[in-house]
Amino acid sequence: MFKNELVFPNFDCTDRDDFFEKISTVLVEKGYVKETFKQAIKQREDEYPTGLRTVPYHVAIPHTDPVNICKPFIAVIRPTKRIEFLEMGSDDKRVDAQLLFILGLKRGEGQTALLQKLIEMFMQREVMDQLLKESNQADIIRLLKKTVA
């Protein structure tokens, strides 16, 4: 589900709304999501925040219902500046995410195992350091496949 065209090592956006606007446009243009995706992911993030206060770096894993997805994917985004998300399970604690993983899954099967592997990866300093430094999309994909697969 990791693809070079969905790895964005220097994604320029000003805040969470700008991020959702820009990434939704890209995902629609590439045929991964439906036009309904942008509104759906914003609404779901408002209702069920996805920011994670993981050590060593904060991340977010925004996602939405399968009805908005055309083909399964995981987009990996490293914004040029940290993006503020609400912490998962909270309505007032904020995290400044340095890495964002948009999960575009068609069905719930395997989602729990995937999330577990991602969260385990988020806590591996060496891997996360590499993800924050690496600019080559293919190298990022190789690291993700080695760590999460």
From TrEMBL:
Pfam families (alphabetical): PTS_EIIA_2
Domain PTS EIIA type-2: 1-147
InterPro entries: PTrfase/Anion_transptr, PTS_EIIA_type-2_dom, PTS_SugarTrans_NitroReg
Annotated signal peptide: none
UniProt superkingdom: Bacteria
Protein name according to UniProt: PTS EIIA type-2 domain-containing protein
Source organism per UniProt: Anaerobacillus alkalidiazotrophicus
